[in-house]
Amino acid sequence: MTDESAPGVKDGSRLTAGVLGRVLDLIPPATGAEVMATAVVSIALSLDGQETLSRVILAMAGVTWVTLAMLVPLRAASDRARFRADAATPAALTAAAATGVLGTRLTLLGWTWAGIAMLLIAFLLWAALLGPVLAAWNAPTVGVSLLLAVSAESIAVLAVALSVPERARWLLIAALALLGLGLGLYVFVILRFDLHQLATGRGDHWITGGALGLSALAAANIASAPKALGIVGARGALKDVAIGLWILTMLWLVVLLFAEARWPRLRYDVRRWSTVFPLGMYAASSFAVGAVAHTGAITSFARVWVWIAFATWAIVVVASIWRAVKVTHGRGSAAAGTPARTADEPPPHLDQVLGDEEAPRVSLGVTRSAR
Description:
disordered C terminus; Glycosyltransferase; 2 strands; 13 helices
């Protein structure tokens, strides 16, 4: 008989015992970032004409999404208190964002039925998670906080992708509203952003640029879609918005690259998936903005950057597999997210929801021990 007081057994459940328990511990709130990153790299490769490689990566994103869809309910049943705490963190919004980005890639593949299903799932997840996340909001904010904006923008991009094949103008209008909401949420978060995260962040600080890149992609796609739907009035304004957002995105890229060079952080952390996603988004948004602006230089940048994103994705995939093997064999810490807390405890700060808590953290170049 299993001892319910043994480590790893929560709420009297046996689900967390043994290998399955260690697998479930590999599912932090932001695990959806793996799907987000993989799907956006697939989108960027497809836009570059690398369709075979894009579809291979798409298959990986799809398998990961389905696997998480099966495992997350088990994790919720095995540790309800921690699951509820995790659901109140911005990292949980990766579930909605990942579904939206994957749905966009499936729609581009011609599977509009799958895109419609993913749009519905993404919207329901977003609507269900938004309230708890805002209720437990913390400041100052960190990179993962920007998922508040990313989740809305990812649904906007999927709505645009579906509007043309479905000839649904209301989807285009909804996408425009979600783009405006996403930009408003971005401003809300970035005004409270802890700039020290550029030195201490473990990967999610890249969302500062990635969220704007996603907005630029949405604006460029909306600017292109009205022509196909016979709506031409807002095309010029949206084109200017897309170009402006892309310029801001590139300014963030300069800052982020400088921060990586000044404060190197080479040790693996699950938050590096939140680096891969912006890298892929830089390429995807540049393809879209270059097309709508008819600017070859932007497209040329995208053709180079897509391979940087792919290379980074491949490195993080290998590191993630190695980490998973170690944890499932009991030779590492899953660091699966926030621990369970009682009702009278304050919510965890946002920098506690992800990553390897055993790893040293870097603060302005000075190494200190993790909590």
